[in-house]
TrEMBL record:
Coiled coil: none
Protein name: Protein kinase domain-containing protein
The species this protein was found in: Alexandrium catenella (Red tide dinoflagellate)
Limits of the Protein kinase domain: 1-372
Gene Ontology MF terms in the entry: ATP binding; protein kinase activity
Ranges that cross the membrane: none
InterPro entries for this protein: Kinase-like_dom_sf (IPR011009), Prot_kinase_dom (IPR000719)
């Protein structure tokens, strides 16, 4: 990662006579080498967040498997004496931060879904990300009901983590590469990793004005893009105050919702054109089947519009850098168009949910669409 390296390690129990004997459980050891005061504080905050979250989660609860459990941390070295915080340079920090936590099992969610990692997605054709194929991956392998079941498990499992976390910190990097998945025969299990970009929830409503925007650009809120392109004064003066409110208090909610939609529409194997046309032809199917199918098609199209923009922003950001991306977005009005596409998606989700409620077997689908 940007801060350091995570190693797999094994705890040696007290009284071990030789290395390799009396071993304890396998753990993850994150070793970070911050180069300035802000990075050092971020590394220390990650340990603090993990420790606070462990204390907030119910003991022996299922949610303990959803995030790494804090074990210990230490700092080797220190900031050089006499260095003023306002005048810090990269040469004035000589520290290494070690955080020990439980090691979680699973496969990165993006690799499971697409069969490729985040770096490959930086260059893959956007149309392939929307429609596939990704041979050997989970993409396009579920019915709509099956895709909904996976999303329900993702939502229900992680809600037990996000509820206590919201009073402690905002993760700020909710993305497919920071989730692990274990895909079993009967169910799937999810876990959330990497709290290295977390910020304190108690002070974020003020800190957002001065803190760098971090995370995966695919999951940025519209407000984050407004901050990048126009600055915090523009966002604070925006006539739609919900953008600012979302960024100040629902930062992780937005990213997680987008992730759930990515999983839903990535997994869903849409019937081929001939079958879809037959379903939508009057006389070939009952009205209560045609209308939900058409509505779901509109939702999928709206999602493709949103995710296409998000992927293009993501690829531009990594190919051209921060400054060039900001200039390009400012010239094109792409941020406003992206926000409009999100509004359309929300409208189509609500409409499809209402129609699915009254269709045969549609209640479960409607419930997922309403939440998202």
């Amino acid at each position: 990662g940007s801060f350091g390296v995570v190693w797999e390690a094994q705890e040696l129990l007290a009284g071990a006579a030789q290395v390799g004997k009396s071993k304890g459980p396998t753990v993850a050891l994150k070793c970070s080498k911050p180069t300035n005061k802000q990075m050092l504080e971020a590394c220390m905050l990650e340990a603090e967040v993990l420790r606070s979250l462990a204390a907030a989660l119910p003991s022996k609860a299922d949610c303990l498997k959803r995030v790494p459990q804090y074990l210990a941390h230490c700092v080797v070295g220190d900031v050089l004496p006499g260095a003023a915080a306002s005048a810090m340079t990269s040469r004035e920090v000589r520290s290494e931060v070690f955080v020990a936590m439980t090691k979680l099992e699973g496969r990165p969610l993006d690799q499971w879904l697409y069969g490729v990692d985040e770096n490959r997605l930086k260059t893959v054709d956007v149309s392939q990300v929307l429609k596939g194929p990704f041979p050997g991956a989970a993409f396009g392998t579920r019915t709509l009901a099956g895709a909904c079941r996976v999303v329900v498990q993702l939502l229900s499992q992680m809600s037990s983590v996000f509820m206590p976390l919201s009073g402690i910190a905002y993760h700020r990097d909710i993305s497919a590469h920071n989730f692990l998945i274990r895909d079993g025969a009967d169910d799937v299990q999810f876990a959330l990793l990497d709290f290295g970009l977390a910020v304190r929830a108690s002070s974020w409503h003020q800190d957002f004005q001065s803190r760098n925007i971090s995370g995966d650009p695919r999951y940025f809120t519209p407000a984050a893009w407004m901050l990048i392109v126009y600055g915090h004064k523009y966002l604070q003066a925006h006539p739609d105050s919900s953008f600012l409110g979302q960024y100040k208090s629902r930062l992780d909610h937005f990213s997680f919702g987008l992730l759930c939609l990515e999983v839903l529409f990535g997994l869903w194997h849409v019937p081929d054109a001939e079958a879809a046309a037959k379903l939508a032809t009057p006389g070939e199917a009952p009205k209560d089947a045609i209308e939900p199918a058409q509505a779901l098609g509109k939702v999928r199209n709206a999602w493709h519009g949103v995710w296409q923009d998000a992927m293009r922003f993501f690829q531009m950001f990594h190919a051209k850098g921060f400054a060039a991306t900001r200039e390009a977005l400012a010239r094109s009005q792409a941020v406003s168009k992206y926000a409009d596409k999100l509004r359309t998606l929300c409208t189509e989700l609500r409409g499809a949910a209402e129609l699915c409620k009254g269709s045969e077997g549609g209640a479960a689908v409607a419930a997922v669409l309403e939440v998202l």
